[in-house]
Amino acid sequence: MSKKILFPTDFSQASKNAFIYALQLADSIHAEVITLHVYQVPQANFVNAAEYLHEIYDVTELSNFENYKDQVPSLRDIAAANNLSHIKISHILLSGNLVQEIKKITTNEKFDFVVMGTKGGSSLEETFFGTNATKVMSDVNAVVLVIPKDCQYKPIQKMLFLTQYKTEDTLSFQIMLSLAETFNAAVDCLQIVSKEKQNKVNCMEEWKEMTKDKEVAFLTIEGEDTEGLILSFIESHTIDMIAMHVYHKTFFEKLFETSLSKKLAFHINIPVVAIPE
């Protein structure tokens, strides 16, 4: 069965930057890329809307189709500029809610990855990834790779896997290892633990045995400032990509919607992989 990557796009510069990651990943795993553009039909809120509703839909769909048709060649140009014209690319245009359409498509068909860019926030009060990307990462049952808006493609040389070394992390760890192998990247596994909540029983030794012939480091840092410690680790260890198992949504939301995200927006700009339960 051929491998497939779903690439939701709004044709913004952020999504075009992310498209290079999608193409490079497709090239590495011999996959095709299916782009997805989702638009919303405006709500009619005037008197006697029913008699005009068909016309509204027709005009909106035609307008979106024309815009879509005009934008698609630019994706092919990006592929050509990066010597990736050989990647098979197909396109889907749908009306509806972006997150719901992604969930529907990935439920009905198997995709190896969802790759998407995000515009992020323009101020400290706004989230780093934006509402849609955060929802896709936490709600869609697929491996999701999110590329921040100013992230320019570069080879992935070192990945960071955030973990508590729990048994339920093992499958995600193996998926992350496979991705690291695809990129030919080294891996740092990192656990942040407080003095009061140290987990005496974990999978670290089992994982070490599993990866004894691979370039994988296993680390634990003690402290209370989880977000700050992760940020410092990313900066000091030259991390190119973060991966994590999304099973603890409260932690996930805290990590990528609040304090760390605000710091990341100003200090670091790297892709994040969310691996579902």
UniProtKB/TrEMBL annotation:
<dbReference type="InterPro" id="IPR006015">
    <property type="entry name" value="Universal_stress_UspA"/>
</dbReference>
<protein>
    <submittedName>
        <fullName>Universal stress protein</fullName>
    </submittedName>
</protein>
<dbReference type="InterPro" id="IPR014729">
    <property type="entry name" value="Rossmann-like_a/b/a_fold"/>
</dbReference>
<feature type="domain" description="UspA">
    <location>
        <begin position="1"/>
        <end position="148"/>
    </location>
</feature>
<comment type="similarity">
    <text>Belongs to the universal stress protein A family.</text>
</comment>
<dbReference type="InterPro" id="IPR006016">
    <property type="entry name" value="UspA"/>
</dbReference>
<dbReference type="Pfam" id="PF00582">
    <property type="entry name" value="Usp"/>
</dbReference>
